[in-house]
Amino acid sequence: xxxxxxxxxxxxxxxxxxxxxxxxxxxxxxxxxxxxxxxxxxxxxxxxxxxxxxxxxxxxxxxxxxxxxxxxxxxxxxxxxxxxxxxxxxxxxxxxxxxxxxxxxxxxxxxxxxxxxxxxxxxxxxxxxxxxxxxxxxxxxxxxxxxxxxxxxxxxxxxxxxxxxxxxxxxxxxxxxxxxxxxxxxxxxxxxxxxxxxxxxxxxxxxxxxxxxxxxxxxxxxxxxxxxxxxxxxxxxxxxxxxxxxxxxxxxxx
Length: 254
Fold this sequence. Notes:
Elements: E1 5-9, H1 13-29, E2 38-42, E3 45-49, E4 54-55, H2 61-80, H3 101-114, H4 120-133, E5 138-141, E6 149-151, E7 157-159, E8 166-169, H5 172-185, H6 190-205, H7 216-229
Helix pairs in contact: 2-5, 2-6, 3-4, 4-7, 5-7
């Protein structure tokens, strides 16, 4: 019997409602991200149409980078144009949109407690780096890792998993994709990363010239943050290669 749907369960009704709200927002404001249809909402579950396909691989990086740049540009034009990364934003029902800084400040402090940062000096350095990146136009972050993209046999691309959705700078979610591709499949060469960044910027720039300005230094800042933030997941969820190595000036922090 052919599977036609997939049901995901959640711990609470609040997390269920949040995931459904995120799905609706992305459908309205980030149309390039094609999602499986949400067919039923239960008290602690969401049911989606079933999609057969494969997850993302390193060779898909250019296409995914262009998709993210396009989706972030459209979302900025549609709903995030007036949003500050240091301010607040709400969904249509009044629910707060996850902030960029507070969520990650908490996570970085937790990484110190978990032993993924050596000391408070390293924590201070990472918090300073996080604060430095909280500038420029606002995009969104939806945890772009290889498992959250699905390619069908005919090449159609779907995006999965709407559990996490927060504000973030342009380029931040691209860095998450690069970091998790490395953790899943191994090192990616600098030319491939540069090509992905250029493709991302070109796609974002088509919506406004202020959006396609992420340079390699800023991308490396994001990668350094993801290096620490994803550290607890090394060895899990297909992350066989550990966490990506940050650039030399930050190696002592991770």
